[in-house]
Please model this.
Amino acid sequence: MGGTGFRVFSLCVVLAFVRGAARCVLVARLVFMRILVTFAVEAEFAPWRGRHEFLPAQTSSNGQVYTTSLSGVDVLVGLTGIGPRAAADSIRAFTWAGDLDLCLTTGFAGALRPEHRVADILAAREIVAHDKRSNIFDGKIQCTQRLLKMAAACGARVVERFYSSPSLIRMAKEKSALRDLADAVEMESFEVLAEAFAWMPEGIAVRAVSDTVDEDLPLDFSQMVIGQGELSMARLAAQIVRKPSAIPGLIRLGKRSSEAAEKLADFLDTFLAALAGKSVAIASKEAR
Model:
């Protein structure tokens, strides 16, 4: 082989090696992605948990944490508890659990506009907090545009904003009063993403609608929250005894919440597969 031919051959070998290395790096990024998914309570997580083998994990605060691998993505699931205080206290244990690429905070939300119906999956461009949290990110957190586009492709409706309320919004008239502020109301997303963005580059809030803007919740669930944001079954039973007329509404809410949680599990399976680099069509088929 002549000198010129050898140099050309060597260059081809080098280019082939570089291309191969680049492909390996890309595959490594896809396969070894590690993400945090948060729910407030077990009821939101239960359908998704039932579909996959989630193993309990330990954290520094002994919080409720589970791990699994889905579509080549390592998933850390944390239950924050109900409300902003519980979320702020628990999220640190999750973000300190190791290197994470992104955070998806999810669960149920109450609709604040009539176009959002039960079991709709909503992804918010931004999260706004109540006035007492305006010192953090000026009270607004922007979700990652890349993740919003992916969520939309996976079946979520992208909306302008969620309102992270400091307290439960129970009555229809309260929801209607907030319709100009946001599309849906929840209580944990702002605290979760405020902490997550200190540790990882990307984040998104996705919620399933459990109650519509025109309906009251049957009981004041804020009176049943104890400890680190857990729902007390004893307090729930006591409220039912005091107000048995709430039973039909509780049954209806339970059915709607179950439907919302199943739709959320469908979305999460599709979204995780898409994160791993699969086409949305394939991801949606695998999620069924």
The chain has one domain: 33-287. Confidence is low (pLDDT under 50) at residues 1-31. The first helix runs from residue 3 to 31.
